[in-house]
Design goal:
Bound molecules: flavin-adenine dinucleotide
CATH class: Alpha Beta
Radius of gyration: 21 Å
Number of strands: 14
Low-confidence stretches: none
Number of domains: 1
Oligomer: single chain
Structural class: alpha/beta
Distance between the termini: 27 Å
Largest sheet: 7 strands, mixed
Strand content: 25-35%
Length: 373
């Protein structure tokens, strides 16, 4: 049965979550004339633990949903080089194409505004409490008791919480953290994208809009446990240990923490239920692929849903497309994270990584692997 409007009080699609996956799907479905409702539990703008670097491989997905003009108006930055730091050593690599950088507070708000403009209805703040699937529709219950009827439900909540048997698992023993800095005039230049390799952690930093620098890191819990004490002070001490040039006086925001999703592709359990973004699969957050996968999955699923195929055929085709997209990305991101967390391996590879002409032998195939569908 293809996706079609069953009655006046029924939406074509109810979407749970307005991260890049949910809003991406909402924009593409609404532009195709589908009746869409999106429920988001947080009020925007909201801060999210994320390094806020969007892989150049995701540029086509991003620019399909937002124009370069919209991105520039939101003060999105363009970056051309990736800097790798290891102890006192530093190497810079030209990226195969420039990448967009925008804070999640702004990006998610701009995407949701575009979904609204395209015709999607937005319920916010609205927490989805329950989803039930019937033969000809699904019912989504919100925290205020309202019930939304829809032909399909798109689970873009980042975890897949409504499918407990298939909840997206966090990688055991690792923690994600984020903070934003304002570096004073005369301080170090932190523009562009930097990735710092450390013992048991990797730290990314990127210059976002309004002169702020976002720092996000993934660290083993055993390392985090060494920095006991009050929240922000302990996190500052850990960052100063990983990055000796860090000055806690630059910190503009409180630290945020979260688990780090790490999963195989998880298919939904019902024909009317689709999982996308992190709810379907996550990659190691090392190459800016998380936002890219989320945007790509939203737009790809929307295209399939409006193609006139049966829901069963859409399920199979979407799963195939996801697996193709992950085939090289997931191992490539995992391997990059593994190398960055191991000083001995980094030290052994440094002669290769630090010479631009040799580094191209690494970065070009890496982006070719991760950047192709
Ligand atoms: C430390 C760290 C650094 C990272 N750095 C990067 C990076 O630099 N670049 C990159 O591309 N990726 C990065 N990622 C990964 C990236 O953040 C995720 O892949 C991305 O957020 C997934 O988007 P999504 O839309 O699937 O889910 P999310 O962004 O998690 O959005 C889910 C939305 O659903 C809402 N929601 C949840 N439950 C409900 C409910 N019951 N009812 C209503 N709404 C609900 C939430 O409020 C949220 O807005 C990083 C991740 C971590 C942990």
């Amino acid at each position: 049965m293809p996706l079609c409007l069953a009655s006046d009080d029924q939406y074509d699609a109810a979407i749970i979550g307005a991260g890049p996956a949910g809003s991406g799907a909402a924009i593409a479905l609404a532009r195709a004339g589908k009746r869409v409702v999106i429920a988001e539990k947080a009020s925007f703008p909201r801060v999210k633990v994320c390094g806020e670097f969007i892989s150049p491989a995701a540029t086509p997905s991003l620019e399909r949903l937002l124009t370069a003009r919209q991105l520039r108006r939101a003060d999105a930055q363009r970056v051309h080089e990736l800097i790798i730091e290891f102890g006192e050593r530093r190497a810079s690599w030209a990226m195969p194409e420039p990448a967009w950088v925008l804070s999640r507070a702004t990006l998610d708000m701009v995407l949701l505004d575009e979904a609204r403009r395209a015709g999607a209805e937005v319920r916010q703040p609205a927490i989805v409490r329950d989803v039930e699937y019937g033969a000809d529709h699904a019912s989504v219950t919100l925290d205020d008791g309202a019930v939304i009827r829809a032909s399909v439900v798109l689970h873009a909540d980042g975890k897949g919480r409504f499918d407990p048997a298939r909840d997206t698992p966090n990688r055991p023993g690792v923690v994600g953290r984020k903070v934003q800095l304002r570096v004073p005039v005369g301080g170090p230049d932190l523009s562009g994208i930097r990735m710092r390799a450390c013992d048991g952690a990797y730290v990314g930093s990127v210059g976002v809009e309004c002169g702020l620098v976002t720092v996000a890191l993934v660290a083993r819990s055993s390392l985090v446990a060494k920095f006991k004490g009050a929240g922000d002070d302990a996190a500052d001490a850990m960052l100063a240990h990983l990055w000796p040039g860090y000055d806690p006086a630059w910190r503009e925001t409180a630290w945020l923490s979260c688990g780090v999703a790490g999963s195989r592709y998880i298919r939904s359990g019902h024909e009317r239920s689709f999982r996308l973004g992190n709810s379907a699969a996550a990659v190691e957050p090392v190459g800016g692929e998380g936002i890219g996968l989320a945007l790509w999955s939203g737009a790809t699923l929307a295209d399939l849903l409006v193609s006139g195929r049966s829901l069963g055929a859409v399920q199979s085709e979407f799963a195939r497309a996801y697996r193709r997209r992950l085939r090289w990305r997931r191992p490539a991101c995992r391997a990059a994270a593994w190398v960055l967390e191991k000083p001995r391996v980094m030290g052994a590879l440094w002669p290769l990584l630090s010479r631009e002409e040799r580094a191209e032998a690494v970065i070009a195939p890496w982006y070719a692997l991760t950047g192709k569908a």
